[in-house]
């Protein structure tokens, strides 16, 4: 519906350009079309006359009149009026709404898709949690948001790939390897003080048992000479010293054996967890491979060739502050080791080299400083900094019976994504995670997620879909059948306020999908589906669908089945099922 108005305005403006009223054809962005808030003003409104009046050199109402006079005729539009300072209001005919309902039923699962993205290559990287433990409820929000966003972009014509960046190199993996080995020693009867800043979850003990099964007592060492973390003032530095001592004591191969066992075990668990959550990736990209395939060297060479590095204190620095970052960044340490930042910009350069136009990263809210530095890196390497877009996801708080659950990742005191899914189900988790904007904190009410009431948005939306399915069963029980073509031909019979409201809400779906995709805002789709479900339930409670008047019966069934189709399509983009029975 909205695209029809935009097309009409575009033709009218083209006509005015040919007549010399406008100096040039305006961009699509300047042809804004929105649903009217007040039905008395029509169905759609555009402020294009106000945005273009300066270039036309005339008052906005005068330009609006010229635009209206140049509009092509359409049987879909009943009336066009000018309001206020120059708004152009469009009121659609009943034929237009009926034609859109026909389109819903004919296109089915394809309804709401478009070619807005024009095949632009987009890489959505999301979750990318360190493989140092199971996914927790915070990671679940990243997964639901990233997967829904990728689905929305797919639906509007972008060529989307989904990627998980595996942080399998660096200090956190060393801490994990140390944690597993120390727990292994405990299983072997070795008395030691386990560092409070190592990984202490039960999963570490499970992995240490696997290490014991593989190696027996071959990795037992005298640990009396290992440095103590508990007695140190700087516990992080002491932990690093303990890692170094453990590597020397065990030998690099044995230490790597414990580390790799932990990595593979946890990564397998993450893959399974996400897959069961309906989140599937096109590629799992190893950070470790960046050094192996030369990506880090290529990135550093580009920085140096473009004169964006300097040496200070034995380290190599990137002049990030010259390109919008708050300070310069070390890329090669004094010991010759490259930094995390070097890996980050190498990874993003690799994304560009693979042909992606847009690099869309979904990161935690604590990564707000990440954007400027990586964009600076891309620019320094000759890539457009605007090719990187970062969406930050705020934290999740779990509430049970009104009390907040306490969580700490290092200590192992947290609720895993799998535990959440087992308790409330995938559907509730997927939808509630994206109910609010990603940049807002989310309070996840466990009790609400399990209730079967209108207060639970998951139940409320799914119940609307199930109710339409129940109508189909009732129809069969009464010996009737729904004739879609007859129903579409009789849509003019639908003239009460509930039918008009439901019809208009159903037909808002395509523009809602585009808005949600463009704004990177799956919550817009959730709110729309909740409104659609409300309009359907209101209609269901006020009217009988299975009436003896066959044309009216078929028309009502066509309308409610179009609502069912849109609900199924929308829930599908959010990774939520559309059940026929509840």
Account of the 3D structure:
With 582 residues, this protein is α/β, with parallel strands linked by helices. Helix 5 links the parallel strand 5 and strand 6. The mean pLDDT is 94. The longest helix has 25 residues. The chain folds into 4 domains: 91 residues, Gyrase A, domain 2 (2-Layer Sandwich); 98 residues, no CATH class; 107 residues, no CATH class; 121 residues, Orthogonal Bundle (Isoleucyl-tRNA Synthetase, Domain 1), CATH 1.10.730.10. A 5-stranded parallel beta sheet has the order 7-6-5-11-12, with helices on both faces. The radius of gyration is 29 Å and the shape is flat. Helices cover 51% and strands 12% of the residues. 41% of the residues are buried. Helix 20 runs antiparallel to helix 21.
